[in-house]
Inverse folding.
């Protein structure tokens, strides 16, 4: 860029924010290396006592019964800046903020979901520069940052040389399965192949809501306790290796021929927010059901059978709830189908899954098996997840920020923004 | 949202071969249109059955899903419910103590643009329909008065802008009707012009792309393994498709982002042919039995009894 030489000294510290719909992952990074990353609930919440929590204040909340949330990020895109500004102020800019910084001396790396609406991108650029006045700014789709992680080490290959500057991975296929949706993004040298990005509208929210519905229909009305249902989902759900067999195991049988529930069936002890702040899962005990009415035995139990695996199954078979999209493995193949066949072997051999859903047990196994079944037989299929799939995108951004030179070619400075305006910035970041 | 969705879809009624078009945005006068009757119309045969059994089994759409319009509407309603943030409508206003600058640094004067953004209460659905309307408008106008690009805007028939009136879950069925299907997975190289939305007006943006000078995928650093006597054995030879050329990769990387609706993953042709799995509405096991009254699925007698308690007493089911 011609303007680079005239730009002032690049800010020494960079704030990296992976602004997810459920949590935002934020922390500083500089040439000296990444600092600590905080996972902050990206929401404003109100509990039964009408007390409002902002962002990380939520950890002070003791009673999650009937709690309601307002989330500024909707479907993965930052929509409501009023609420987001409140959270950012609380986390970064106020005097007592946990990660305090002065934006005019700080650079910003901010993620967005792929295929964002241009108007939302422009809004974002304007607020970052005109309201917060960050010194420099790089906005990119979240998947892109993952290219700066050590992908080969994730596949248990040789780790990269820490002495060398961080460069993006040559080629990889990134699956980001978060709260709002699941996206498939092929990346070449840290640049997305835009025409091949595919989105599956199944994410953590849909699964939690689905589990809520199942539990509400079959056991207790949980519709006002989605926070709790999310905890149940995280504790109990798994991706089935053999859907049909698991289904048989959890069936109660016909009227004449009752079956004993298998080991898949578990009990989840609900929290009462007094003596038991957190719920937990334990083996199913058929005798506990009768104790429910006993006054001394104040223990509420949800019994989870096929709910444990039919809920994550939605990512692989969205048609189970009538959603007219193909599963994630098919979306990977759809994404490849618009790319030259010469890229397929490399993309299929370097599939990385990030996002909270990657933590569901056996997710990676099942995904690899499903893609294997669809991919050309000659191609090697490797699917892996980083050590912490939730933080992975942030870690990539933090790694990018250690390479100040690469970052400054990608970012836009405040001065450039003032000179050229937001339309120029939008073009710069590859929007339309 | 659903309401809108259903209205937007043209409701078509069949009456003696005359189809009444009740479009949501049609002229207020009752409109009748004669449409050519091509071949056997399955919905006509369904309304004039020769036998009751055949009517029950008749499948208006050739695909495997045997849902009625009522069930379709129910599915859509449930999907919309699953998409919601919470079961009730809530509004949590920003705490008032933050309105004055108590205890926080000020970022200077709020510019009008930012004030507008901060005050906007638009939801994502609002923004999306704005965008759709705008792009429909842009494609409707022959040439905008704004800068005539030096490079002619390549607009292939494939780049349809999404229909403004149809939002939500149904859009994907209609979109890309004239795009050549990309279902054949082993296609070589798709020409970028088929995929590309019109190139950006300003050619400047292509020069912005970083690292244009470095080769995108270099094979320089890779040392080939030592040769083996059986390397040329045709039975052992592995065939690796050649890497695309530099120019092809450049072209591929230069494609601008597609829109939100275009990026939505499809329901592949192959998956459409597969039967949809049915589950028991009560316990979640396979839905092996259909309720005679509502067509809902249950697994066995226990669940059927439970289901029918509800089904037979519910009003309007």
């Amino acid at each position: 860029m011609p303007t680079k030489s005239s730009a002032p000294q690049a800010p020494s510290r960079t704030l990296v924010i992976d602004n997810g719909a459920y949590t935002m992952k934020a922390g500083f990074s500089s040439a000296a290396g990444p600092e600590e990353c905080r996972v902050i609930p990206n929401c404003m919440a109100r509990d039964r006592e009408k007390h409002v929590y902002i962002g990380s204040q939520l950890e002070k909340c003791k009673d999650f019964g009937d709690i309601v949330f307002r989330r500024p990020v909707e479907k993965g895109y930052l929509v409501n800046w009023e609420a987001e500004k409140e959270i950012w102020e609380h986390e970064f800019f106020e005097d007592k903020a946990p990660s305090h910084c002065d934006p005019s001396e700080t650079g910003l790396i901010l993620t967005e979901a792929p295929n964002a609406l241009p108007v939302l991108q422009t809004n974002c650029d304007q607020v970052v520069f005109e309201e917060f006045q960050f010194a420099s700014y790089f906005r990119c789709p979240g998947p892109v940052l993952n290219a700066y992680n050590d992908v080969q080490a994730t596949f248990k290959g040789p780790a990269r040389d820490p002495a060398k500057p961080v460069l993006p991975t040559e080629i990889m296929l990134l699956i980001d399965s978060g709260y709002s949706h699941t996206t498939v993004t092929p990346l070449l040298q840290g640049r997305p192949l835009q025409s091949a990005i595919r989105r599956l509208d199944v994410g953590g929210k849909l699964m939690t809501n689905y589990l809520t519905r199942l539990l509400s229909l079959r056991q207790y009305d949980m519709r006002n306790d989605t926070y709790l249902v999310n905890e149940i989902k995280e504790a109990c759900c798994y991706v089935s290796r053999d859907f049909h067999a698991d289904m048989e195991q959890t069936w109660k049988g016909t009227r004449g021929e009752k079956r004993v529930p298998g080991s898949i069936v578990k009990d989840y002890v609900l929290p009462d927010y007094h003596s038991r702040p957190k719920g937990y899962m334990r083996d199913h005990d058929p005798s506990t059901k009768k104790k429910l009415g006993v006054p001394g035995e104040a223990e509420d139990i949800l019994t989870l059978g096929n709910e444990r695996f039919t809920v994550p199954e939605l990512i692989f078979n969205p048609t189970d709830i009538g959603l007219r999209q193909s599963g994630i493995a098919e979306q990977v193949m759809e994404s490849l189908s618009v790319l030259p066949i010469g890229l397929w072997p490399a993309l299929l051999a370097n599939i990385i899954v990030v996002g909270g859903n990657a933590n569901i047990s056996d997710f990676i196994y099942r995904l690899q098996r499903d893609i294997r079944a669809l991919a050309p037989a000659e191609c090697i299929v490797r699917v892996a997840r980083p050590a912490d799939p939730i933080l992975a995108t942030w870690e990539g951004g933090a790694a990018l920020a250690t390479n100040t030179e690469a970052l400054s070619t990608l970012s836009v400075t405040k001065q450039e923004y003032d000179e050229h305006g937001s339309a120029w910035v939008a073009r710069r970041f590859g929007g339309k | 949202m659903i309401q809108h969705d259903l209205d937007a879809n043209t409701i078509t009624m069949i009456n003696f071969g005359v189809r009444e078009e009740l479009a949501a945005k049609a002229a207020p006068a009752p409109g009748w249109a004669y449409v050519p009757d091509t071949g056997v119309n399955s919905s006509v045969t369904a309304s004039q059955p020769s036998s009751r059994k055949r009517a029950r089994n008749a499948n208006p759409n050739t695909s495997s899903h045997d849902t009625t319009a009522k069930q379709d509407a129910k599915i859509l309603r449930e999907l919309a419910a699953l998409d919601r943030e919470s079961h009730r409508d809530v509004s949590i206003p920003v705490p008032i103590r933050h309105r004055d600058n108590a205890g926080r640094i000020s970022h200077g004067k709020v510019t009008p643009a930012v004030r507008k953004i901060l005050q906007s209460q638009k939801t994502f659905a609002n923004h999306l329909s704005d965008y759709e309307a705008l792009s429909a408008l842009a494609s409707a106008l022959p040439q905008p008065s704004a800068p005539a690009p030096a490079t002619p805007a390549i607009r292939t028939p494939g780049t349809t802008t999404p229909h403004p009136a149809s939002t939500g879950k149904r859009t994907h069925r209609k979109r890309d009707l004239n795009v050549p299907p990309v279902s054949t997975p082993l296609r070589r190289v798709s020409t970028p012009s088929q995929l590309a939305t019109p190139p950006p007006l300003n050619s400047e943006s292509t020069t912005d792309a970083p690292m244009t000078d470095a080769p995108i995928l270099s094979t320089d650093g890779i040392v080939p393994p030592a040769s083996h006597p059986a390397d040329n054995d045709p039975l052992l030879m592995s065939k690796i498709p050649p890497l695309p050329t530099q120019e092809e990769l450049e072209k591929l990387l230069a494609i601008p982002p597609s829109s939100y609706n275009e990026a939505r993953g499809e329901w592949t042709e192959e998956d459409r042919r597969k039967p949809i799995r049915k589950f028991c509405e009560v316990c979640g096991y396979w839905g092996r039995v259909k309720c005679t009254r509502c067509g809902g699925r249950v697994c066995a007698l226990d669940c059927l009894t439970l289901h029918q308690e509800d089904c037979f007493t519910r009003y309007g089911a």
User: Anything to note?
Assistant: Chain A has three domains: 13-142+388-429, 150-201+325-385, 204-312. The CA atoms of residues 78 and 87 of chain A lie 12 Å apart.
